[in-house]
Amino acid sequence: MKIDLGFFFQWGFRPFFILSGLSAIGLLTYWLLVLKAIAFTPETISLSDWHAHEMIFGFGAAALAGFLLTAIPEWTGATHLQGRGLALYVGLWLFGRLSVALIDLLPLFLVGLINVAFPLILAWHTLPHLMKESGKRHHIFIPMICLFIGAQIAVYLGWSGVGEDFELSRRALLGGVYALIFGIIITSTRISMVVIRLALDEQNDQDSLFRPYPYRRNLASVTFLSFAAADIIIPETSILGWFALAAGAALMDRLSDFHVGRVLLKPYVQFLYVANFWIALGCLGMGVNAFLELGAATDLRHFFGVGAIGTAILMVFTIAGLRHSGFDLIVPKRMIAALLCMITATGLRILPAIPDNPLPIEASYDGAACFMILGFILFLSKFIPIFCRDQQKVSSEKY
What we know:
The protein is mainly α. The protein has helices at about 5-10, 15-35, 45-75, 85-100, 110-130, 140-160, 170-200, 215-235, 240-255, 265-290, 295-300, 300-325, 335-350, 360-390, 390-395.
């Protein structure tokens, strides 16, 4: 398939959504090889740190960049990054992935500088437009972006020996996960306003009233941030348990906004609902774990890492990919299959948290990775042709 580079680098979502999908497939495949002792990770950092860093600040950061470089110009009317500038920015992300792979051979300071430069440039290109926005509707993204950058800086400080007793790098990696989750929560608020009304219109439902309550959304955001701070600062304590249960309850209550008419029959609404459900379930699970002292926090956090982030990224790829490519919001069958893969992957990955679970841990890890890989293969098989050539040349494709 011939790639129209001018078209490909016209909007940030095209290269970064593809790169994010490819990185998920590549990183998880390599992770499986590492677990089988067929491949090896750098010695400078721990195995778990390498895996977490690349999934958060590689895979996750690419998805975040693609979304923000597309959404913020749409919200604010600002000029979007495109052409040679976008190509160079994509090159910086690729260079970052290479530098982490070669971290044993390169100065740690240089690796950190390359990787931290990526979200800093994203902030430099997006934050001024958000701050100038009238109405301040999207200003909540400013602290989210800053939290993500701060977490990545703290990771490299931890790897360099700063705050070793505080386990700075581990807690900073967790902060990166929670920054992305916070981004999902506030993004879902904006997307749900559009897709639920669209679903009601498509179903010709004039009787059901969609009335989102701001206090629900604000309470969910505040309680989640409180839980995230507690999990980073005072993990495995009863205090964390209370914060976790409060966040889980608020997030479950927030899901009530989706219980309108028959909108949950629409696949694009299901994506959004499932992503938010995983966040709520993760918080509730962390609360139970803290009170019962199950020692399953690492497994339960994959409700966030695999379930919420994986599902939300596929959701954004699908909704933004279709809308910004000129297609109606009709979710392809392959993406419905991808959602089922992500649900299966999440279930398998958190099984080790369940006492007396009969499935071997290795089978849970392998199965979760394989289903997540399959989900992103399905995404790429559908959207690479759409993202790589002019929409007019593919508008006749049947969904």
